[in-house]
Amino acid sequence: MKFFCDPKTLMHSISIVQKAVSSKSTLPILKGIYLEAFDKNLRLVGTDMEIGIDHIMGANIIEEGSIVVDARLFSEIIRRLPDSEVEVSLQNNNQLLIKCASTEFNILSYNSSEFPELPEIEEEQTHEISQELFKSMIRQTVFATAQDEARPILTGVLMEIEDDTLNMVALDGYRVALRKGKIEAHLNNKVVIPGKTLNEVNRIIGGEEDEKVQISLTNNHALFTVGNTKLISRLLEGEFINYKQILPKEFKSRIKVNAKHLLDSIERASLLGKEGRNNLVKFIITDENMIINSNSELGNVHEEIKIELEGEDLQIAFNSKYFIDALKVIDDETVYLEFTTNLSPGIIKPITNDNTIYLVLPVRLASY
């Protein structure tokens, strides 16, 4: 194997596949990147057996072949090379020669036959969605996945395809994030994608409105194709919670409020809430005003913002983190807050559409 390429292009490609490389595996081969030189292309693959990333870049191929090289070491070498064409060639005894200007490295590599093959996924039934839209949908849901492994299914995001609509849902037992978007679909489907997978897809996506992400699903795996990059992931097994039963169908109090003003006020109130009980903030809602209070042993804070209230006055308390997380990813300038009672879940959603809904469980006022 022997090829020439631009070191910056190679470094960019390494950074894409390196996200899937295992850093904790006891198998040295899984800490490596698979390199394959063929035609006018260099293929790079990384996998931890849960996620696999396959990326193709252009290169000047002198001799075809394949090898596996330690990902961390290879990345550090390429990152520090001079800004000049790099030559990579396989020598005797699995030594990989890396030459660039007056710099030369010889490093140990592994036999490529020992590298695990990525699962084969049929791409005949492929769904397509705008890169820009899918990136936005990931950003607006994945933050609400559970961070502990007590209920593994909740560490993922439900992807529910119904006709030409994709519903993405994340919940962790205290909140629900729902985002709907249009997708070009061939059949209905329902799978749970690990949150880690979607975070990696989000990093790969450029976000161009006219470019598409291709999504292929099987019973066990999902394949996301973005340009010259393929990401394959295992699906999470188990039954996802029926989120439709959780969402309230009516409200007794609806507030219209500026999203940024609300976010700023809650963030200030949370400065003291963090020192108290569970980041607790209390909303006192009356007519045209909403008072936001937070108390701790260090003191208290009082915030007041203008609102438009439809329905009944209310006093209700929440963990400020859950409100802050939701408000940060809503793109609308103005939002609705909908409440039923001080013990019922609260809803946050933009006023311009019903494509985005956030549910947050309240905290009992008696413990305030």
UniProtKB/TrEMBL annotation:
Forms a ring-shaped head-to-tail homodimer around DNA. Residues 1-119 form the DNA polymerase III beta sliding clamp N-terminal domain. It comes from the Bacteria. Pfam families: DNA_pol3_beta, DNA_pol3_beta_2, DNA_pol3_beta_3. This is Beta sliding clamp. Keywords: Cytoplasm, DNA replication, DNA-binding, DNA-directed DNA polymerase, Nucleotidyltransferase, Transferase. The lineage of its organism: Bacteria, Bacillati, Bacillota, Clostridia, Peptostreptococcales. Residues 244-364 form the DNA polymerase III beta sliding clamp C-terminal domain. Residues 128-240 form the DNA polymerase III beta sliding clamp central domain. GO terms for molecular function: DNA-directed DNA polymerase activity. Belongs to the beta sliding clamp family. It is found in: Cytoplasm. Its main location: cytoplasm. Confers DNA tethering and processivity to DNA polymerases and other proteins. Acts as a clamp, forming a ring around DNA (a reaction catalyzed by the clamp-loading complex) which diffuses in an ATP-independent manner freely and bidirectionally along dsDNA. Initially characterized for its ability to contact the catalytic subunit of DNA polymerase III (Pol III), a complex, multichain enzyme responsible for most of the replicative synthesis in bacteria; Pol III exhibits 3'-5' exonuclease proofreading activity. The keyword Glycoprotein does not apply.
